[in-house]
């Protein structure tokens, strides 16, 4: 029978199914951060259960860590406790942790690929919805809750029902200054935030193949914003080149064995998907969200829609409430929306390529009056690489703050946040009410769009630039 | 986990779609290392006035008629966004043990059942009936019976619902998932040995 990549990976990790129970799926890699793990360790301790497979785990500290004055103690005592608890739990269980002092520290979904910890064909979990990022390597990677974190630590498995499969085919070529982020947002504009519920998405087509590994990570990262369990891209030569020589990549004779196996994972010609969505990359313009859900998105050359333009009652209500929260009037041109803040970073757009894109746009500009712009690398490796290339100087000379790595203003847990009413051009993944600070208004964009907005003080149609 | 059987309780209504987990429990409350005590922060940014302490009278769940509700009736795609299990912890700690909606985000749905929350899926037309009934009679109580998979209401808008038999069994008996899985530890070990032979590099570094 012809199989999709998802089905091949699923079947190769099937352990057992008890009648009347969900199938048990084996987990190869378990990623961890400080926010969703402490209660899982507490559960294990209370039940006197050991961590079954410590070598399958890689942990970091990212959500609560400060992005400036890292040499000072964390000011927030509760965040400090959470960071300390993570360190204690990893120490006690012999887990590999990139703590705040480690040169390998950074956002979990940025540091894991840097070390080649995830390979094609793996089942990967993390107590974090953006785990789908690692699907870029042809792995089945998905977010889980804390009870499931505990379950995986104790058993190396998860009870899982098989998902349906969706192919998102992106044909054609992206226009200049359009990026993986614009593809990700455009797809969500089509599917809606619930369109992928119950599915695992496979992204394919000329435009996906043309993306770098960083770009594929950006697209897969936002599969969850389409409601999908996971997103994935077939492994190819780019995947293999990215992994070769990395710390946790197979070495020597294992490398050749692994390559043969990885190549066998690709979806069989003629395999069937439960649903297929097709987009053409050449029709995707730079995207900006106008509302409080990632599906409320439009090309920068467009205008804020009116509630009446939605036939569906639910979407009409959602538009009304979003316009109120965002303080926007229908028909306002996106390029007429002024911003107060710019954030470049996060597990969606905190990789070296993102800062290169943004720096190209920021070069020789000055941050507009009244605008605060911060650049937060996804990891120390990204930061060092950027500094080696002089990218930090470009940002600093343009009036940006060049920060230490962390999740920062993507979810504003570490003190980096918007004030009530401030409007932000953000390269993160969610524009929910209050996500970047109570009363804060978030517009999701690509790094290049964010950099252009910082200089202009409003959104700019960068597709019109040379 | 506590057993879930049947109960009758006030049904509270939140007629909002796409309520995300950032709203259910905002990030400033995710720094605790315990599982308990999140109920007071449930829907914090909507529930309290700007001072963060006094109740916002305009927020649905602050209506006196909804006091003590165990059933929460909500709009489509409830619980989207972050995987934070703090969301169902907050919901359960507040006192809800049942949610009725047309749809839930995937991870949130799983998380509910790990915490003794029955997340019931209904057709849009059925949800409209339930919402109308609550609007017409705020403080109305619904009865929920997991064994027979039924919900009944005073106005006769009762219905039966589907639930995965595995989840139902675990909820009725208050079973611990991990304990259940560990019954198959031999099969896990056997699989692992085969997996190691097939993909030895996974254990090499």
Structure description:
The complex is a heterodimer of chains A (466) and B (205). The model of chain A has no long low-confidence stretch (mean pLDDT 97). In chain A, strand 1 (14-16) and strand 2 form a beta hairpin. Chain A is built from 16 helices and 19 strands. Chain A has helices at 5-12, 38-47, 77-93, 108-114, 146-155, 180-191, 206-210, 213-221, 237-243, 253-263, 313-326, 346-349, 352-362, 380-388, 391-397, 447-456, and strands at 14-16, 24-26, 29-32, 57-60, 96-98, 123-126, 140-143, 157-159, 164-171, 199-204, 230-233, 275-280, 287-289, 297-299, 341-344, 372-375, 401-402, 423-426, 441-444. Chain B is an alpha/beta fold and 205 residues long. A seven-stranded mixed beta sheet of chain B has the order 4-3-2-1-5-6-7. The interface between A and B is large, with 76 and 57 residues.
């Amino acid at each position: 029978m012809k199989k999709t990549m998802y089905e091949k990976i699923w079947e190769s990790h099937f352990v057992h199914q008890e009648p009347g129970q969900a199938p048990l799926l084996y987990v190869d890699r378990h990623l961890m951060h400080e926010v969703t793990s402490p209660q899982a360790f507490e559960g294990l301790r209370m039940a006197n259960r050991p961590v079954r497979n410590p070598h399958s785990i890689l942990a970091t500290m990212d959500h609560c860590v400060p992005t400036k004055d890292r040499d000072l103690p964390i000011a927030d005592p509760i965040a400090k406790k959470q960071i300390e608890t993570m360190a204690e739990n990893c120490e006690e269980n012999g887990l590999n942790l990139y703590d705040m002092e480690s040169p390998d520290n950074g956002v979990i979904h940025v540091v894991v690929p840097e070390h080649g910890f995830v390979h094609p064909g793996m089942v990967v979990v993390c107590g974090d919805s953006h785990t789908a990022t690692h699907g870029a390597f042809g792995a089945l990677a998905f977010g889980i809750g804390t009870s499931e974190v505990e379950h995986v630590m104790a058993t190396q498995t998860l009870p899982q029902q098989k998902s349906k499969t969706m192919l998102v085919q992106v044909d054609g070529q992206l226009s200049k200054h359009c990026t993986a982020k614009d593809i990700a947002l455009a797809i969500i504009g089509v599917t809606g935030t619930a369109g992928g519920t119950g599915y695992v998405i496979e992204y394919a087509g000329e435009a996906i193949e043309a993306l770098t590994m960083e770009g594929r990570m950006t697209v897969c990262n936002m599969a969850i914003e389409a409601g999908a369990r996971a997103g994935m891209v077939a492994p190819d030569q780019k995947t293999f080149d990215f992994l070769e020589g990395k710390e946790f990549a197979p070495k020597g004779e294992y490398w050749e064995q692994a390559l043969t196996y990885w190549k066998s994972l690709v979806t069989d010609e003629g395999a069937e998907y439960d649903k297929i969505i097709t987009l053409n990359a050449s029709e995707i313009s730079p995207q900006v969200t106008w509302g409080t859900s990632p599906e409320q998105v439009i090309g920068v050359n467009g205008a804020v829609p009116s509630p009446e333009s939605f036939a569906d009652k639910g979407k009409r209500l959602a538009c009304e409430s979003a316009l109120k929260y965002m303080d926007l009037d229908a028909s306002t041109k996106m390029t007429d929306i002024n911003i107060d803040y710019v954030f470049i970073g996060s597990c969606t757009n905190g990789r070296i390529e993102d800062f290169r894109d943004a720096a190209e746009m920021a070069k020789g500009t000055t941050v507009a009056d009244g605008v605060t712009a911060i650049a937060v690398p996804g990891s120390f490796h990204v930061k060092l690489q950027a500094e080696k290339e002089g990218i930090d100087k470009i940002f600093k000379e343009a009036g940006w703050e060049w920060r230490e790595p962390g999740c920062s203003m993507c979810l504003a847990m570490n003190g980096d946040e918007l004030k009530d009413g401030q409007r932000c051009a953000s390269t993160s993944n969610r524009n929910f009410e209050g996500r970047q600070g109570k009363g804060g208004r978030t517009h999701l964009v690509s790094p290049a769009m964010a950099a252009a907005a910082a200089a202009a003080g409003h959104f700019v149609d960068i597709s019109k630039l040379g | 986990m506590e057993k879930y059987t049947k109960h009758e309780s006030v049904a509270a209504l939140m007629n909002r779609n796409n309520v995300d987990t950032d709203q259910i429990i905002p990030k400033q409350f995710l720094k605790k290392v315990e599982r308990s005590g999140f109920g007071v922060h449930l829907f914090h940014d909507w529930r309290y006035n700007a001072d963060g302490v006094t109740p916002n009278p305009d927020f649905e769940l602050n209506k006196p008629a909804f006091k003590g509700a165990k059933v929460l009736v909500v709009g489509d795609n409830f619980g989207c966004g972050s995987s934070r299990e703090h969301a169902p912890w907050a919901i359960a700690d507040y006192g809800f043990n049942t949610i009725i909606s047309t749809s839930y985000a995937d991870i949130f749905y799983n998380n509910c059942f790990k915490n003794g929350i029955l997340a019931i899926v209904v057709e849009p037309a059925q949800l409209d009936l339930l919402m109308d009934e609550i609007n017409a009679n705020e403080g109305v109580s619904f009865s929920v019976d997991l064994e027979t998979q039924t919900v009944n209401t005073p106005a006769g808008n009762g219905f039966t619902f589907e639930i995965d038999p595995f989840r139902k069994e675990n909820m009725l008996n208050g079973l611990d998932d991990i304990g259940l899985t560990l019954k198959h530890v031999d099969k896990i070990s056997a699989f692992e040995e085969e997996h190691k032979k097939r993909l030895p590099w996974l254990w090499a570094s």
